[in-house]
Amino acid sequence: MQIRFLLILGGIVSVSLFLTECKSSDGAISPFPTISHPTDNQSSEAKIELGRKLFFDTRLSKGDEIACVSCHRPDFAFTDRIPLSQGVEGRQTERNSPSLLNAGFLPTVMFDAHLETLERQVIVPIQEHTEMDMDMKTLLEKLRGIPEYAQAAQDIFGRKFDAWVLTRSISAFERSLISLDSKFDQYYYKKDPNALSASEERGWKLFSEKLYCTECHAPPMFTNYEALNNGLYSDFGKDKGRFRINNDSTDIGKFKVPSLRNIDMTYPYMHDGSKNTLEEVLSHYSKGGNPHKNKDERIVPFTISEDDQNDLIHFFQALTDTSYLNGFQ
Fold first, then answer.
1. Cα–Cα dist 99/74, whole Å
2. Rounded distance, CA 76 to CA 301, Å?
3. How many CB atoms lie under 10 A from the CB of residue 160?
4. How far is it, in rounded angstroms, from Cα 192 to Cα 177?
5. pLDDT value, residue 300
6. Are 167 and 65 in contact (CB under 8 A)?
């Protein structure tokens, strides 16, 4: 299955995005990629439920202060709607909390796009000083002493509660968080011509055919999964993005391109939460960003009218799907 898109923000050549045709349980062709479960962590309802309980449990943090859900709230599309999240003892995290919806489709996780599995990601916030700040040995001893968790570890994994149980269950829960039934999906993939309003449809055409944003925010997931420099700053200061992984100067200012799904729910925006509204985001890109030697060459100035901006924002709002909340009422 081949879908053709054009380059972002004033590009002049076309590229091809190849999507895997996947059959659903009823035999229909789906435009969405399939979630690849690791061979050592196949999903099950029991595993997901254990992961859900751990995700909401403040005992995973120092002083029993916060849980994973503190920074990834279901009602906020699994973000927290503050620029930088608050960890234990009032500490502030370095980056804005990204949505966990559709995390199972990600080839890499974290803003640096360097961790290849959700299993590895789970450990990061638990041990991070500015987040949950929990010593893993101490945590496992604590959780092993909770009868409900000890029994679940034996029933599901056939072992004592350990790091394997912790990471496999929480990552299984994260992979269960799916949001793929927005108004746009109904219009574009389910072929409902009435799903979008006239303004939303105009916004989609602006996004894909005039501004060519689909090079970096390509359907169906509305990201290309790459770490790029979008010219947010001329000087990125302390947080230089992916640079911190390999100390490669060409990586300064590069952060993973986020999905735009549920974008209307996940403000503030950018890796540091520095843009409060979609209007501010559009203003940044319309100016062509700030000068930086690593800024992606596709970030160039463009001009749109106020009506165009409203249409774009209406299109962004049409990417919202809250059906996942049915499991969190």
1. 9
2. 31
3. 12
4. 25
5. 96
6. no
Locate 101 and state its tokens: 């919806």
User: Phi first, then psi: what are they for 84, rounded to 5°?
Assistant: -125, 130
**pTM of the complete model:** 0.89
- Comparing CA positions, the residue from 226, 220, 231, 237 lying closest to residue 275 is 231
Whole-number Å distance between alpha carbons of 14 and 4 = 7
Predicted confidence (pLDDT) at residue 88 exceeds the cutoff of 90: yes
CB atoms within 10 A of CB 292: 18
Question: How far is CA 213 from its chain centroid?
Answer: 18
Q: pLDDT of 259-289, one tens digit each?
A: 999 999 999 999 999 999 999 999 999 999 9
Which tokens belong to 85? 């999240």
Over its C-alpha atoms, the chain yields an Rg (Å, rounded) of 21
Which residue in the block uniquely carries the two structure tokens 């004033």? Answer: 10
Q: Quickly count helices (H) and strands (E) in the chain.
A: 11, 6
pLDDT by residue (tens digit) across 94-142?
999 999 999 999 999 999 999 999 999 999 999 999 999 999 999 999 9
